[in-house]
Amino acid sequence: MKEAQTSTRLVLPYGDSRIRCEVRRSKQRVKRSIAIHVEPDGRVVVDAPLQAADPDIRLAVARRLAWIHRRMVEVENRQLVVTPREYVSGETAVYLGRRYRLKVVSAQGGNQVRLRAGYLEVAVSNRSPETVRHELEQWFQARAKEFLPTRLAMMSERLRWVKAIPPLSIRRMSRQWGSCSPQGRISLNVGLVRVPRECIDYVLLHELTHLREHNHGPAFYRLLDRHLPNWKRTKARLDGLAEVALIR
Predict the structure, then answer these.
(1) Rounded Cα–Cα distance for residues 235 and 151 (Å)
(2) Residue 233 in 3-state DSSP?
(3) Residue 133 CB-density burial (10 A; 0-12 exposed, 13-18 middle, 19+ buried)
(4) What is the helix (H) or strand (E) element at residue 170, kind and residue range?
(5) Positive or negative, the Cα torsion across 128, 129, 133, 136?
(6) Model confidence pLDDT, tens digit, residues 115-161
(7) By CB count within 10 A, which of 144, 157, 209, 227 is most buried?
(8) Which range is most confident: 3-17, 78-92, 167-181, 218-232?
(9) How far is residue 212's CA from residue 162's CA, in Å, rounded to a whole number?
(10) What is the pTM of this model?
(11) In 3D, which of 185, 176, 179, 181 has the Cα closest to residue 206?
């Protein structure tokens, strides 16, 4: 259940480039506390108190422009090394953080995807890249709908403030791993089924914590520290896997 926020844009020059930020103001945020995040897709998000003045926000961002630029370059470099997929045998596919060798075989009957001895085997009657990609997408979606609700239920049982398992939707999300609506409905990126279990648990804890703390204030992070002391390391690992959010 997230508190309503206001959102504006901020653009600051840095060298020959311009850094664009999304500024989110919330009345739940502690006074004078301004947090700056560079998201896995390279977006810059600034969380500020509702009463924060524009000059104060601009100054806070200006002081961290060098850090912001470094993080944006890191994101860009990660994206550059992602090789376009051809959907042929020998490529790598990732499921729950483990890498499998893709094996495409011809099939006379219906199409099928299955894990076999370190391989992710795709049996298709038409071996075109479009067909193989479609079958892989369907398989990952099915695994996500099977695995993620079970994991959400397990995580919910550990948190005293979660009285019932919240409604869940699993869908493609191009910019985030998960979200929590004002009504307490959790949405998860189908690509989560490709990352390690510890990263999935971090995202689940993050969204479930929003049922108790509706913003990213100190109380929110205290709960993360209490229930997942190494969450910062796990988040950094997850950020490094942003390229697997979409099936390529």
Answers:
(1) 18
(2) helix
(3) middle
(4) strand 168-171
(5) positive
(6) 988 899 999 999 999 999 999 999 999 999 999 999 999 999 999 99
(7) 209
(8) 218-232
(9) 8
(10) 0.71
(11) 179
Provide the sign of the torsion angle of the four alpha carbons 241, 243, 246, 248, taken in this order. Answer: negative
The residue whose two tokens read 């664009």 is 20
Residue 36 tokens read as 């700056």
Length, in residues, of the chain: 248
Residue pointed to by tokens 């709960």: 223
Domains, in order of start, for the chain: 6-80 (no CATH), 92-244 (3.30.2010.10)
Contact, 186 vs 208, CB < 8 A? yes
The token pair that represents 65 in the structure block: 């422009």
> Residue 46's CB: how many other CB atoms inside 10 A?
22
DSSP codes joined into one string, 35-53: EEEE-TTS-EEEEEETT--
3-class SS of residue 11 = strand
